[in-house]
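Translate sequence into structure tokens.
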Amino acid sequence: MENFNTKDILRLILPHWRKLVVVGILAVLAGFIISSPLVIKPLYKSYAVVYPVNLSPSSEESNTEQLLQWFNSEEVKRAVEKRFHLKEHYKIDSTDEKSETYFNLRYKELVSINATLYESIEISVKDQSKELARNIVQGIIEETNKLISSVKKQRLREYIHTNEQELKISGAKIDSLKYLINTIRKTYNIMDFQYQSKYIAKEISKGSKLSELNARTAEGLSLQRTELERLREVMTSQIFTYNELRTNIDKYHLDVANDISYTNVVSKPTLPDSKCYPIRSLIVAIITLSSLLIACIIIVFLNIKQRVD
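Result follows.
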């Protein structure tokens, strides 16, 4: 079998240059037709850039990583799909048992959500409609905010419930302490034990005989003063706890009532003015070069066959 070098191959091909020109022209025309909107529907790309705000770090995750997981959650994807009727838009039959698989593949193909080098998140959506591409990007941001807000408000309601239960317990303890303190005071006629202690001590030092009421007070001060001071300290601590719980509940109620955004939009969703797919020049170039290569191979093959024959 003969060995062909580049010069031999060119010597075989060059006489057929007219044929190659015709093949090239036909390939270019075919490329233009194939890449035209009649064959391949053009796609437009809209994108937005956001930063996380009002998020607390969870475990070792950064706020950006945490927000990225919210964006890529199933809940956001389903909310966007229902909001823009994407299954119908993508011509996916909802009655098909594999409709979810087809939708997920299409969504993954057209929707991209990734972190950037600057700890922001870029959301890009491709679609045949410029307006819908932009609206889907905006919808993803809004639905993510709604989801985060919903989850956090549910957690806040749990905190409110827990704190209200603790508030009832703390209030009951304060009532019990008040009852014990009032019982001791009534039993021994103790109103202001510091003043009464000084008064009784002064009367005793004078050698005066104490009245029955003052004698009972003196007995109470002797037996219950330490207990009264302890009960007052415990009640002061319980009142502090009660007030702290009340403050927390008010704060949680305020957070539930407020609508907080968790995304700081740096670059708003764009309305594309040119298609991102297909790249017509690339398709034409690939088809043309492929056609010329195949034509050259055929010419070389036919020449080899003639020589063999």
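Note: The chain has a mean pLDDT of 82.
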